[in-house]
Fold this sequence. Notes:
The structure holds 2 protein chains of 2 kinds. Chain A has strands at about 5, 10-15, 20-25, 30-40, 45-50, 55-60, 60-65, 70-75, 85-95, 105, 110-114. Chain A is an all-beta fold. Chain B contains no helices and 11 strands. Chain B has strands at about 5, 10-15, 20-25, 30-35, 45-50, 55, 65-70, 75-80, 85-95, 105, 110-115. In chain B, strands 2, 4, 5, 6, 9, 10 and 11 form a 7-stranded mixed β-sheet that branches. Chain B is globular and about 45 Å long. The chains are: A mainly beta, B mainly beta. The interface of A and B includes residues 43, 97, 100 and 103 of A.
Amino acid sequence: SQKIEQNSEALNIQEGKTATLTCNYTNYSPAYLQWYRQDPGRGPVFLLLIRENEKEKRKERLKVTFDTTLKQSLFHITASQPADSATYLCALKGGSGNTGKLIFGQGTTLQVKP
Amino acid sequence: ETGVTQSPTHLIKTRGQQVTLRCSSQSGHNTVSWYQQALGQGPQFIFQYYREEENGRGNFPPRFSGLQFPNYSSELNVNALELDDSALYLCASSWEGLLNTGELFFGEGSRLTVL
């Protein structure tokens, strides 16, 4: 069956360092992969989308890579700040249609300490 | 902040009761999907509505049902509530069609507690 796995343990880093979060998937060939941020008690907020034919995408301090051979995406936050502390979710979509049908990982909680 | 609004924000029900959750989609979006998020887990896809018809469903029993209205707002109904239905219910709107960006816009969710 299709499976998405993210680091289950919380990631604690010092302010100013680069945070790297991992998303691995199996039995799946996604058309694209997305990353969302979720704060406690709030809905997820879209950050980045990377398509299967793209290797890397950047947005300000965020960078996402997508390796369809390894079936893995890495999400980087450079020059991290305490305000970056949140849970980060990766989500996959396969095939066409059904835009809203995403399969989410369980999320990785990032804590950035001042 | 997205233009997706959900109500109520919190509610408490007892086992066996029925609940209706509501969602107002972001302006210009034609698709709404619902997700269930248990504590410490990622959101799980319940179903999606496009042009007032269900066009995708996750692994949820028939007691989870929904509606989409002509103005693209939506309802999620859950009958015969069970303790395991306690979760955050998220509504997400999107545009299905040409120039589809794939991005979902989530509301803040409705926190359901079943006692």
